[in-house]
Amino acid sequence: MSKVTVVGAGNVGATCAEVVxxxxxxxxxxxxxxxxxxxxxxxxxMLQVGPIEGFESRIKGVTNxxxxxxxxxxxxxxxxxPRKPGMNREDLININAPIVASVVKSALEYSPNAVxxxxxxxxxxxxxxxxxxxxxxxxRVVGMAGILxxxxxxxxxxxxxxxxxxxxxxxxxxxxGDSMVVLPRYTTVGGIPVTEIYSSxxxxxxxxxxxxxxxxxxxxxxxxxxYAPGAAAAQMAExxxxxxxxxxxxSAYLTGQYGQNDIYLGTPVVLGKGGVQRIIELQLxxxxxxxxxxxxxxxxxxxxxxxK
Length: 308
Known about the structure:
Elements: E1 3-7, H1 11-23, E2 28-33, H2 38-47, H3 50-53, E3 58-63, E4 74-77, H4 93-110, E5 115-118, H5 123-134, E6 141-143, H6 146-161, E7 168-169, E8 172-173, E9 181-182, E10 188-189, E11 192-193, H7 200-211, H8 213-221, H9 227-242, E12 246-255, E13 261-272, E14 275-279, H10 286-303
Parallel strand pairs: 1-2, 1-4, 2-3, 4-5, 5-6
Antiparallel strand pairs: 7-10, 8-9, 10-11, 12-13, 13-14
Helix pairs in contact: 1-2, 1-9, 4-5, 5-10, 6-7
């Protein structure tokens, strides 16, 4: 019986749990929070959508009860403080590092074979922190970043060109943040390189704007986005549970790829049973290599702030 746990019943976590439940690929979904009644109430509300929408996944909310998460296939960690206006991801590290470490250790005690999908920010650093806190094989700890980042780029590009976003595919490398590396030459529309059917200059402008997509939403809402991040994490959970071996951009642990070691950075991966089954290393131009190296430096500077 497949089982998915989502830790954190805030906006992102609740959205993730709802999408997982609606997609019906997990027989059991557990939503965990530290605030009494929040996860229970939201889960009950989601459960009651089942007769309306026609899904059969069972969802249950609990307060700090990790025993209920036992034998989960996937644990999605969304707990921690959201980014607020004027706050960058680095500002969150002292708040979120102890929370993430506590959550992954508690969940691992009851689900020793689980794959952990980290959503807490600063994402690449928190994913690295989760790996070090658990001592798990790196393929079982992966960060949700690239699916969200490319979705923002794909959505904007689809509107600009006037095509379905389903026909646009793209790859983003590096940090989940302002130094991410968008690769227009790896962007296609229905399999056609986008630069062959649309202005290269305008594609680059949209790509640059997409880097700041999260901050733009935060400025408008007063808190981080949640619909797209929650859905992106749910899509990763689906690939792992069903072993679909989808190729997704994600924050993965590098061991020499792109000349980087002991760091989590965005890269295409094959995602399926057991987590990251393979890292796909792209051939980059000298300019792209320099951009990725700069992005890695940014992530390393944040990693250095982690508690020892």
